[in-house]
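subagent[fold] <- orchestrator: predict structure for attached chain, return tokens only, no commentary.
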Amino acid sequence: MSKDKKEKKETAPQTDEEVKEEQSEAPQAEEAVSEEPKAEEKTEASADDELAALNDKYLRICAEYDNFRRRSQKEKTEIYADVKASAVKSFLPVYDNLERAIAQETSDEAYAKGVEMIMSQFMKTLEGLGVSKIADVGEKFDPNLHNAVMHIDDEEKGENEIVEVFQKGFMLGEKVIRFSMVKVAN
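subagent[fold] -> orchestrator:
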């Protein structure tokens, strides 16, 4: 309604035309009012759907990140173990040479004692890194730990018993760094 009509409404009685005009405006206003709640309901429903979608997306991203973090940590641990095993493996020829030096007879006691001390220190270092020797003579042959390079028939020895070790094997935890080369009795 215009200002003139409002003034007339306040000051003068209404005519039939004014009443009809007012009634025709009223349903339009009611329709507009009734449309607004429907729009609000649609807006609320779409907002709830959007919120649910965003929440689902957020949870999926969190799960992906958690999986990535676990996978990265596992890979880092595995890489560390592999690098450690590789470094230890590169020092095993030094162990072999020290073992050969100890096996050699010498008249110089100081020399022999020095080599034994070096070997002892080397073994302590390996043990500190978690490296252990694989079973020795008299143990049962295990293909997961030993590499049988020779077989002998010996009635005094048990079946699949290790009778000689040509090269010692080593393990880092549960992982074999180097297999033992052995002679096995059948």
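orchestrator: received. Logging for downstream: The two ends are 114 Å apart (CA to CA). The chain has a mean pLDDT of 84.
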